[in-house]
Specification:
The structure is a single chain. By secondary structure, the chain is of the alpha+beta class. The protein has a single domain, classed as archaeoglobus fulgidus dsm 4304 fold (2-Layer Sandwich). It contains 6 helices and 8 strands; from the N terminus they run αβββαβαβαβββαα. It has helices spanning about 5-20, 90-110, 135-140, 160-170, 210-220, 230-245; strands at about 40-50, 55-65, 70-80, 115-120, 145-150, 175-180, 185-190, 200-210. It has an 8-stranded mixed beta sheet with strand order 3-2-1-4-5-8-7-6, with helices on both faces. A hairpin with a 5-residue loop joins strand 6 (about 175-180) and strand 7. Helix 2 (about 90-110) runs parallel beside helix 3. About 40% of the residues are buried.
Length: about 250
Amino acid sequence: MGDGDEELVRRWEREQECLKQRLVEEDTEAWQKNPNFSGLHRVGGVDLSFIKGDEVSACAQLVVLSYPDMELLYECSEMVTLSAPYIAGFLAFREAPPLLQLLQRLEREQPSLMPQVLFVDGNGLFHYREFGLACHLGVLSDLPCVGVAKNLLQVQGVAKTDEHLSQISALKKAGDTFPLTAASGRTLGQALRSSNSSTKPIYVSVGHRISLDTAVHLTHSCCRYRVPEPIRQADMRSREYLRTHFPPTSSE
């Protein structure tokens, strides 16, 4: 890491600390307090997909689905150029700006379709400094946000140990969970078995304006397969956009 990067990291750390002051880790909406999430009608999902071999050009994707039916209400795919470098622990500074722009465009053009909660393909509180992409995007958009990761971030004393693997094998049915507890003793998220057909859990953590329990129950209620439908749809549609507009060459 050069001097320029070190200066950038210091600036990002300060910015992250400022944003973290605004983070809300509890339920703020009436629908969150209802056992059936009555009053929740629109759930959003965001994702970025990259062209193979290109770390700068990506397709930023936003989808909004109806709840609880998971019917598509809105989608937007946009090619973006990521200008910030990738530095571990600061992914949000690279990925949040284009995703935020998609949300701002929706708010301008079709405000009635704004999601009431946003699922983010990445971590929230379950992060090196307890402020991952889902927290960053949540605070900047001021939307309730849930971070859902497909792979375990080995952070704050949480690791793929034998104990972790035995906890996974103890998840017998969809809806079963176990806590992701940091070395400090703080619970930063939950591993969730999201479907009976998949034995691999997903890792759910608070992004903003939602409690962990609500985040886990809501995530489970949005899963038809292993990954919650808003994120699955965003991922599928961004990949499809890249396949259509940037087909792989025959030499690949």
